[in-house]
Amino acid sequence: MANPRSPIAESIELLSREKNIDPEAVITALKEAIRRAYEKQFKATGEEIDVEYNPETGQIEIFARKVVVEQVTDPAREISLEEANRLVEGAEVGDIVEIPRPFEGLGRIAAQMAKQTIMQKVREAERQRIYEEYIGRVGELISGFVKRFEKRGDMIVDLGTVEALLPRSEQSRAERYSVGERIRAVIKEVNRGAGHQIILSRTAPELVMRLFELEVPEIYDGTVQIKACAREPGERAKIAVTSTDPDVDPVGACVGMKGSRVQAVIRELHGEKIDIIEWSENPAKFAASALSPARVNRVRIVDPAARRLEVIVDDDQLSLAIGKQGQNVRLAVKLVGWHIDIRSESEVKREVAAQIEQLVSGRETPLSALEGRLPETALEQLRAKGFTTVEQIARADADQLAEKLDWSLAHATEVIARAQDALRGKEMEPAASASAVDEHERA
């Protein structure tokens, strides 16, 4: 048991209590500091120094470690067997003997160095203690008091046992705080480095989620779950919720009686608007809800691989769906995780009309236009292989057509030529001899 009157023991106890670190960490730092200081003070001796703390006396003890040898060649690290036996009875060659050295021999400079080393080690131990205490709490809501403001607008928050940093970039533009005012934020980051180890945030989506957890008992007990959250701090936020109990309305639970629950969160966020929507596994249904308060007519999945959706709304809902400077659709995209293209009904109708007009004006010639120009059997073979228009045949490659229909190259070439003539509106001239198509039919 340490001597309560020992100043070293009292200093260790006071320092460990003040910094809230393990006394063993202080003792380790103290021993290392004394060893370095002693080596600096007596570096000419070249001795190997060992420092120990005696918990019974509360004192620091310094030893020079030397190897027992028959003949000494290095006095700084070796001791003769005869001399070792005078210090330790029964010493043998090869043993390590610890020779006491005076603690009082340290000079002022060495003592100052020891003090600096101790403080450095204590700070390292304190940083490690803070890191281990808070690293598992990233994303957690925490309360403190505004202690002071830095030049760049960064805020220092007193958490009780440690100070945290709320950078200007993590502060909402809609909020203003004064020194001494209570503040709640989420822990964004914890690091081991020097300076402020705990970084807070008032702009992270997690802040909205943690605040709803405080206000909504159904979220706390797991009946209602927050599946996603997106926000533009100080302006608007959207959260998607779902219920594990079919009898519990997740949106209603978050809104509360007469909006009491959501209003409490809005007050904490200094007036930031919040849209609460019901989450769905169906991305089309989810996207339609995410664009609230706009009414969506229909949603089409354009490209599942690229996660693209097309949303159609009435003309009077277009600006509402997009939002001021695109804010509403931006938040919906973050919430759903799909790219969303918003189009008005009139735009879609104009596009459909244009497509119909193009189809009518530029429609292709049906295969029946070749009746009388090609034998019926050839037309049936073409239809069987998927040819439906004269243009398809006219653009075909003779080799590929011959291979596809098991025709001769001459036959395929003649069929392509007749299709091209039909498109040009030319009548076939009487051939001097039978054509390849007719010969093929007769064969």
Describe the model:
With 443 residues, the protein is of the alpha+beta class. It folds into 5 domains: 7-130, NusA, N-terminal domain (N Utilization Substance Protein A, Chain:P, domain 4), CATH 3.30.1480; 138-203, OB fold (Dihydrolipoamide Acetyltransferase, E2P); 217-279, GMP Synthetase, Chain A, domain 3 (2-Layer Sandwich); 280-363, 2-Layer Sandwich (GMP Synthetase, Chain A, domain 3); 367-442, DNA polymerase, domain 1. Helices cover 41% and strands 22% of the residues. It has 17 helices and 15 strands. It has a 5-stranded antiparallel β-sheet with strand order 7-6-5-8-9. Strand 13 (298-303) and strand 14 form a beta hairpin. Helix 1 (7-19) packs across helix 2 and helix 2 (23-41) packs antiparallel against helix 4. The chain is elongated. The model is unreliable at 426-434 (pLDDT under 50).
Main traits of this protein?
elongated; N Utilization Substance Protein A, Chain:P, domain 4; single chain; 443 residues; five-stranded antiparallel β-sheet; OB fold (Dihydrolipoamide Acetyltransferase, E2P); alpha+beta; GMP Synthetase, Chain A, domain 3
